[in-house]
Write a structure and sequence with these properties.
Elements (H helix, E strand, L loop, with lengths): L7 H14 L1 H10 L9 E6 L3 E6 L2 E6 L7 H14 L4
Antiparallel strand pairs: 1-2, 2-3
């Protein structure tokens, strides 16, 4: 299956999936990469080529990627790699 360009519609699809199926990961992103000590709720609002935008406890935060994302597959690989790079526990 070919990867989709990172359009607003693809961003919306990724965010919906992350929020519905991987809410704990979104919360973990806000803690680890957003530098927040004890976030209560987090939602992924948008994925752009250079960053993700989260709403954490009512405040929007941006988390930069280590490279510009090329497409939906790159977004998937990058999010998984970021999650795996976090300390487990």
């Amino acid at each position: 299956m070919a990867a989709d360009p990172l359009t607003p519609a693809v961003s919306e699809r990724i965010c919906k999936h992350m929020n519905n199926d991987h809410g704990e990961a979104v919360l973990a992103f806000s803690r680890h990469y957003g530098g927040l000590d004890a976030p209560v709720s987090a939602r992924m609002l948008r994925i752009e080529t250079d960053q993700m935008l989260l709403e954490v406890d009512g405040t929007e935060i941006k988390i930069s990627f280590d490279h510009p994302l090329s497409d939906s597959e790159d977004a998937h690989r990058t999010l998984v790699a970021m999650l795996r790079a976090m300390p487990q526990g």
